[in-house]
């Protein structure tokens, strides 16, 4: 199945390429090599649980701060340079001080990342002050990329959306009734907990990479830029899909997306050239 407009089909294909690309860990290992994989084995015991708790705490307030400076009714192309500049500075601090700095660096990194995600949402026609758009921004943080060995049926874009669907729907109903996102509301707590559980895997990988002794501040900045760039790609794909869903409906876009995953039939060879006269 393909979308009826050629431009929209190309948009879908670009979104598919972004959303099904390798995970952050695969990218970091590909760029920095074996030290990242080794650093994962050197993290202190119980570190993953601490990262999850820190991620939940940071997420609970980061989104409102992230969209505070964006104007709802001013759609424009997303600007990535400023976000990357501040993300690099935040990562440099994290790289300079190592793992103990994560509790301070993570909330700032998430605010910068969520602001960039909201900026991309706005560029795709979303109203960033709309509480439902804020929920969609949070969804992006659960998208880590498929990776080279992970099963797309469990970790692919739509698989993650299905896994979050119940919590997102419950949160959306609450928002529709109250008109605002109340961070202490049980539906929002459940959604943030579920997203934090997925995001904390990526945050742990980022922390491990920043903790590699040879990297230091410069390496920490590079890791943060890579981290931000990865989730900017996830946001571009996610909000392009949402824009297409507003035009074609979720079911049609989902079917066209999954059709891209199916193996393509082999193309017939070109006809032989005519014999010379």
Flag low-confidence runs.
Answer: 85-89, 91-97
What's the number of domains? 1
Put simply, the count of helices is: 12
Series of secondary-structure elements, N-terminal to C-terminal = HHHHHHHHHHHH
N/C terminus separation: 44 Å
Range of strand content: under 5%
Strand and helix layout:
Layout: H1 6-19, H2 24-32, H3 34-41, H4 47-67, H5 81-97, H6 102-123, H7 131-140, H8 152-155, H9 157-178, H10 186-210, H11 216-248, H12 250-261
Would you summarize the structure shown here?
The chain has 277 residues and is mainly alpha-helical. It has one domain. The protein has twelve helices and no strands.
Task: Kindly describe this structure.
With 277 residues, this protein is mainly α. It has one domain. It is 71% helix and 0% strand. It has 12 helices and no strands. The radius of gyration is 20 Å and the shape is globular. 41% of the residues are buried.
Question: Tags for this entry?
Answer:
277 residues, mainly alpha, 12 helices
